[in-house]
Amino acid sequence: MHQSAGSSFLMDLECKKEAILEAEARFAKAMGAAVIEKPTVNFWMVLIPILFLHFIYRMKKYREGRAKFDMDFMVSRKLAMDAALEAVSSGNPPDILDIAKTARVSDEIKKPYIVWMGVLVDHYMDLMRAHGGGFASLVRSAYGNRENYLLTLNRLESVEREFYNAIKPHLSATAGAVEIITAIETQSRIFRRDLAQEIFS
After folding, report:
1. C-beta contacts of 19-26 below 8 A and 24+ residues apart
2. Cα distance between residue 127 and residue 83, in whole Å
3. Pick from 159, 136, 153, 142: which is nearest to 193 by CA?
4. C-alpha span between 117 and 96 (Å, rounded)
5. 33-40, long-range: CB within 8 Å, 24+ apart, which pairs?
6. DSSP for 65-115?
7. If we measure between CA atoms, which residue out of 63, 113, 88, 90 comes closest to residue 13?
8. Which of 41, 27, 52, 37 is CA-nearest to residue 189?
9. Helix 3-35 × helix 177-199 angle, to 10°
10. CA distance linking residue 133 with residue 157, whole number of Å
11. What residues contact residue 194 under an 8 Å CB cut-off, 6+ apart?
12. Which pLDDT band, with edges at 50, 70 and 90, does 159 fall under?
């Protein structure tokens, strides 16, 4: 490949990567908003200053929790995106085992994690090979219609569910963890269906 053509190809891939990660970041924020309860001001806080100070403290913790949730939610997705970018730019198969190694996944959950990452990397590679300047146009180019896109989302949700089911027994001692995972599964399904409808409306 000619050097300038090669540079243009890599720049195009980087632009697609950023568009996809921006969409995933919006997804993370939507999940965080759905599963982390935001403190609300009530009448008594206005009358009793110490209660309002407590509200400010809770709001600070909420914002810190949301930021941490968003960051953690994106870790594996960024690793999958890096693997997809490397595979598409080099023409070599993606190294899914390396993702699990980098993420330091324990042996108990490694198999469902690898399966999940494999499906996610394939999805990202489909989008990276598509034509378009934004996430919606990449999805339309890669999948053609809403039904095809939903089939991919269904597959992704299925392997995510298997991964979540594998980690739930290890979180039984963590209060609320299983409920949060269940909420993420439910909200993911709703968010993705709405997104598919919006993209192919």
Report:
1. 19/132, 19/133, 19/134, 19/135, 19/138, 20/81, 20/124, 20/127, 20/128, 20/135, 20/138, 21/74, 21/77, 21/78, 21/81, 22/135, 23/135, 24/74, 24/77, 24/81, 25/70, 25/74
2. 13
3. 153
4. 7
5. 33/66, 34/183, 34/184, 34/187, 35/69, 35/180, 35/183, 35/184, 35/187, 36/62, 36/65, 36/66, 36/69, 37/62, 38/62
6. HHHHHHHHHHHHHHHHHHHHHHHHHH-SPP-HHHHHHHTT--HHHHHHHHH
7. 88
8. 27
9. 130
10. 26
11. none
12. very high
- Average pLDDT across the chain, whole number: 87
Query: Residue 77: what pLDDT?
Result: 95
Q: Which two tokens stand for residue 108?
A: 């108990």
Q: Which token pair is 136?
A: 């919606």
Answer yes or no: is pLDDT of 1 > 90: no
CA dihedral sign of residues 52, 53, 57, 60? positive
CA gap 22, 25 in Å, rounded: 5
- pTM for the predicted model, two decimal places: 0.85
Output the six-digit token pair for 125. Answer: 């590679």
